[in-house]
Amino acid sequence: MNECAKKAVVLLSGGIDSTTTLAIARNEGYEAYALTFHYGQRHTREIEAASRVARELGATRQIVLDIDLRSFGGSALTDDIDVPKGRDLSGISRDIPITYVPARNTIFLSFALAFAETLGAQDIFIGVNALDYSGYPDCRPEYISALEHMANLATKAGVEGRPFTIHTPLIAMTKAHIIRTGADLGVDYSLTTTCYDPSAEGKACGRCDACLLRLQGFREARMNDPVPYI
Questions:
Q1: Domain spanning 7-221: which superfamily?
Q2: Mind listing the pLDDT tens digit for each residue in 143-176?
């Protein structure tokens, strides 16, 4: 471990975006502390993927935090609501879909902020994207800017002059650009998972919004997606 490296908390879900974000943070010389959430989502395969990625990309430590958002429900990812399948790609980001989990990134970033402050870290990385995404309001640049402002008002570190920066290296990238960036950094995307509704064997459905965006990204990047599909 490089004792001189700056520490950063990286939100890691095990998908393409968060995995690429971790690779970018490591490439920029950060000592990465991965934070993954078991929040009551439909399946735990993404948690398994996040652990694989954290090991492969050299995270100093990974914490998997339990939060039961199923107690609230309100999303196809945390409630007994069918995941939309086969939607037109051109309309995916037009409306906020039922897979939106209420206030999820605000919850996750609040925990990341607490973790960073205890580590003495001033940098948080999150793989939000405002181009090829599912229309979630908590993936937009103006949201991140507002959250960063709040972070520096609400913490001891912030008011004592050690401000936090929330890094969003993928915010203006297409999915294809994200995939090519990760590939250039040596990311093995076979370690990742994206599907909202995989089979019992872990195969991706190929029809949910997340799968459709992933497949489009690999297609536009002119690369083969290494994960199995039904």
A1: HUPs (3.40.50.620)
A2: 999 999 999 999 999 999 999 999 999 999 999 9
d(CA 111, CA 36): 10
Q: What φ, ψ does residue 212 adopt, rounded to 5°?
A: -60, -45
For the chain, count helices (H), then strands (E): 7, 5
CA-wise closest residue to 61 among 32, 86, 29: 32
The b/e string for 154-190 (b: 16+ C-beta within 10 A; e otherwise) is: ebebbeeeeebebbbbbbebbbbbbbbbbeeeebebe
Unique residue bearing structure tokens 């939000």: 128
Instruction: Name the residue type at position 155.
Output: T
Would you state the structure tokens that stand for residue 177, as one six-digit string? 């650009």
pTM of the model as a whole: 0.94
pLDDT digits (tens, 9 = 90+) for 50-88: 999 999 999 999 999 999 999 999 999 999 999 989 888
Q: What share of the chain is helix, strand, coil (3-state, %, to 5)?
A: 40, 15, 45
CA-wise closest residue to 19 among 185, 143, 135: 185
Q: Which of 169, 157, 160, 229 shows the shortest CA–CA distance to 199?
A: 229
Instruction: Write the single-letter amino acid at 115.
Output: F
The domain locations on the chain are 7-221
Q: How far apart are CA 14 and CA 36, in angstroms?
A: 8
